[in-house]
Every structure is written in structure tokens, then in C-alpha cells.
Amino acid sequence: MKTDELVTLLATGAGPVEPNASSRRYATALGWGAFGATLLMAILLGVRPDLDAAARLPMFWIKLGLPAFLTVASLVAASRLSRPGAQLGRLPAALAAPVLAVWLLTAYVLLAAPPPERVELVMGRTWQYCLFSLPMLSVPVFVATFWAMKGLAPTRLALAGAAAGLLAGAIGALVYALHCPEMEAPFLGVWYVAGMLIPAAAGALLGPIVLRW
Amino acid sequence: MRDLFIRGLGGDAAAYRAFLTELSAHLRAFFRRRMSGLPDDVEDLMQETLLAVHNQRHTYDPGQPLTAWVYAIAKYKLVDLLRRRAGHEVRNDALDDELDVLAHNDSEAAESRLDLAKLLVHLPDRQRLPIVCMKLQGMSVVETARATGMSESAVKVGVHRGLKALAAMIRTRR
């Protein structure tokens, strides 16, 4: 095929392109993904019965705050990594900052507690359950975000997959926090972070396989 | 060139055509400089990249430098080709072609090994018919819809998905 023929083929009848394709695709993906995660949580796990009382405690909002910050930062990262040539800029720092803040709080709480209680502060009563349920709740957003990326053009596939996975994990954690009864910072700093990193790692592995174009 | 592309994205087919023609010369030069060991693949990869630019044109953000966007796509396609090649054949072929390095210039358009007619056969009707009518015969969306009995939105979707399927076929056939 001659290049002229290809150019003609591509240019003929090429109508206008709708602007903001990336944001619209992400909006659709996140809408369905977050809806799916909330539905899964409500049906399989249930909202914690003492939500009213818990919502008056600062720790409840810290527990929502960590995944909320990570949701915003990883959404920006994912949408930039979906477009060829877009730079990440200061995003790695924005992703690290909320985690570091929670780790500082974790260190403070552990140092202030009497040594015999420290293990229980970290392990809580539900760590195994958290490590399973949080990634499970991230599955709807994981699938939806990969769908969104598949329709765009990521060029760094492992990194893009990791960002998609982290976004899914962060929203999974946000929804899981409405169910989870744990109210200690060390639990958040260890198990929530680990729970969000599981889908991120899965995304980094799947990206190069699934996202090729 | 960026201006031509922006006008193309707005629906100006003549500007878009001029953009693609200019881009093809740049891409050819880019790949030729980086693929001295694979001269036969330059034109194929350039066309594959041109098709990718077209298929992914909705991912261009007007606030972004065009060079960065095009370069990222071209590099991605080049790395993709080299990675696929590494698995298939030893990369010591065509070493004697170094002497030819001055014999080629940007606008020397060779014919690629991609055969559109042969590729189109593999597409399902709902993608092939809209491409043949709109892209090869120059019919409008309305005319194509009438000729094929498809809805207008199905025609647009068919063209879009068909071109993506062609890109995937070209990529995996190597």
C-alpha cells in the first residue's frame, strides 16, 4: 500500500473528534465502577451498624481521607498515563504524601502505646478479612478503569496498569471504610495500604498484556 | 503542523490530509534514522504509526505539545516492533545496507507490504462495508447508511472499530 493511499483512506470522511474523550471515558468508568463496589459492599458485607456514631470520630474521617486523597491523585495519574507524551510531574509526590502522613500517625500512636498493646493496634481483629475484602471491592473499578484505558492510548503499560490498579484499590478502600469496624491508625497504615497495593501490583502485571495497541 | 491537526480534529478533512502527509515524511525520517538494520520495515512501521495516530487522535490534548504526543506514539510503535522482532529472528540482517544510508530521503515513499484489500476481507460486514463506502468510495455517512441499510451511528462505529481492527491485524501479522 502506498502512503498516499493510506492518507486518503484516513482523511476521507474523517469527521470532527469529540473533545475531552479521556475525561468522559473516565467519568463513565468511575461511575459504574464505584456503583458496583458500593453494591458489592452493601450486599456482601453491609454498612457498619454504628455508622452514625463512628462518623463523629476524627479517625473515621482519616480512614476515608487516605483513600480519598489517593483516589484523586491516582485518577490524575491514570488519565495522564492514558495519553501519549503526558508527563507525571509531581504526581509521585502527591501519591506518597497521604501514605507518609498516615505512617507518621501510625508511628506516633505505636510509640505512645504501652508495648504489650502494640501488636493488637496493628493487627486489629479483622486484618485477614480486610486483606481479602478490600481488593475484592476494587474489582469493579479495576475492570472499568482498564476498559477506559483500553479505549485510550497508554504508552507505558506497566505504569499505566499500576495507576489503574491503585485507583481501583483506593476506591475499594473508600467503600470498604464504610463497612470496616477498625478505628486505629496503625491498622490503616498497614492493612489498608497493603490492600490497595494488591490491585496496584495486579495492574502493573496485567497492563503490559491487556493494554497493548 | 499543529494548526493543521487541530483543524483536522475539528472536522476539516483537507487540513487533516495535509497534516497526515506532512507527518508521514517526518515519521519516515524518524524511523529510518533509528532502524538502519531493518530498512524493509521502515515504510510498514511508518504506516502502522500513521494509522495509530489516526485511531488515537482523540487522546491528543490541545494544551500539550504535538511533538511530545507524536513522539510518544512513534517510540511506542518502534519499541513494540523491536520487542516482537527480538522473539522471532536474529537481528543481524542487512548489515551491508549501511552504504545505502544516503540513498534515502524523507519524501521517498516506498510501497509498504500492507495490502489493504487482503486485510479488509477479514473484517466483518458491519465494519468492512462502512469503510469501503466512506473511506474508499468517498460516500457521506448518510449515503453509506442508505447503501448498507445500517443506521448512521452504526456506520460511524463500524468505521472506527474497523480501523482499530485493521491496526490490530497489521500489528499481529508481523
Q: What would you call the shape of chain A?
A: elongated
Whole-number total of structural domains of chain B: 2
Structural class of chain A: mainly alpha
Please, how many domains of chain A?
A: 1
What's the main sheet of chain B like? none
* Beta-strand content estimate of chain A: under 5%
Which regions of chain B contain 5 or more consecutive residues with pLDDT less than 50? 90-105
Regarding quaternary structure, how should these chains be classified? heterodimer
In whole angstroms, the N-to-C terminal distance of chain A is 21 Å
Account of the 3D structure:
The complex is a heterodimer of chains A (213) and B (174). Chain A is mainly alpha-helical and 213 residues long. Chain A has one domain (40-210). Chain A has helices at 3-11, 21-45, 51-54, 58-81, 91-112, 115-123, 127-150, 157-176, 185-210. Chain B is mostly helical and 174 residues long. Helices cover 66% and strands 0% of the residues of chain B. Chain B has eight helices and no strands. In chain B, helix 1 (2-9) packs across helix 2 (13-34). The two termini of chain B are 31 Å apart. The interface between A and B is large, with 31 and 56 residues.
Question: How are the secondary structure elements laid out?
Answer:
The complex is a heterodimer of chains A (213) and B (174).
Chain A (H helix, E strand, L loop, with lengths): L2 H9 L9 H25 L5 H4 L3 H24 L9 H22 L2 H9 L3 H24 L6 H20 L8 H26 L3
Chain B lengths: L1 H8 L3 H22 L7 H14 L10 H23 L27 H5 L4 H12 L4 H8 L3 H22 L1
